[in-house]
Fold this protein.
Amino acid sequence: MEKLRIVFMGTPEFAVGILDTILQHNYEVVGVITAADKPAGRGQKIKYSAVKEYALTHELPLLQPINLKDESFLEELKALNANLQIVVAFRMLPKVVWEMPSLGTFNLHASLLPNYRGAAPINWAIINGEAKTGVTTFFIDDKIDTGAMILNVETAISKSESAGQLHDRLMQLGSETVIQTLALLEKGNVTTNIQQDTADIKTAYKLNKENCKIDWTKSVSEIHNLIRGLSPYPAAWCFFSDKGEEWNIKIYEANILNESHSLAIGQLVCTKKEMKIAVQDGFIQVLSLQFPGKKKMTTAELLNGIQFTENAKAY
């Protein structure tokens, strides 16, 4: 059995859950690679990645290269003398990096590959109304998320689950799958499956302002899927207008109401505690939202301080 010496590469909270599980299972992590520090927020204070925070707390050797082909970084990486690299939510690696360890470099991706290759697999699985998703470990090659698959494990998505809830479940499932992958590598028992590309493969596009905007002409289920697929971050958004004013609103939680009506699409219907928005095949009942400059609040809290006229609309 080969003793593993692991370099771990990752950046966000999702990667921290995996790294923590690797250490809990007493694997040797000889180095951690994460994103360079960058200023964030209104004060532009330097912010460490979640993985850096974890590595510092656990006194793990840490590298933060800006250029992954930089000679001095490659020398430092080689000096760690790893025989395996694990990548979770990092960035595309040059061949000189992923080829370096004798056992290769494997990635954990939060989808059932080949579907949902790309930046936001958890969000898009929900936005597209999938009934299931999962995690896949695969050996990295020279394209994004296309390498030979080692393990993939599926899980059902509930009809009310948010991206945040699914993120936490897949972090747990991903941790277990990485440990299973490590056990196979230790014993030299890895078998792989080549990804089969088909015409109907779905992609996990990068999220941007445009694809996070709610289109109220869509069906209740499509709108509901977008809201929960972008909650809590970056959040689905739209405009509200009333009494000559316009607000850019984020909506975090909603329900589907299958009720027929003859109202204009986008019309707000409010009582003292409830807000619903008319769409073609029913209503979207808004449960929590955020107005510009305010904190996230429940609809009841919002309606305590603001009254909308019957001309109010969402678009």
Q: What stands out?
A: The domain at 5-187 is CATH 3.40.50.170 (Rossmann fold).
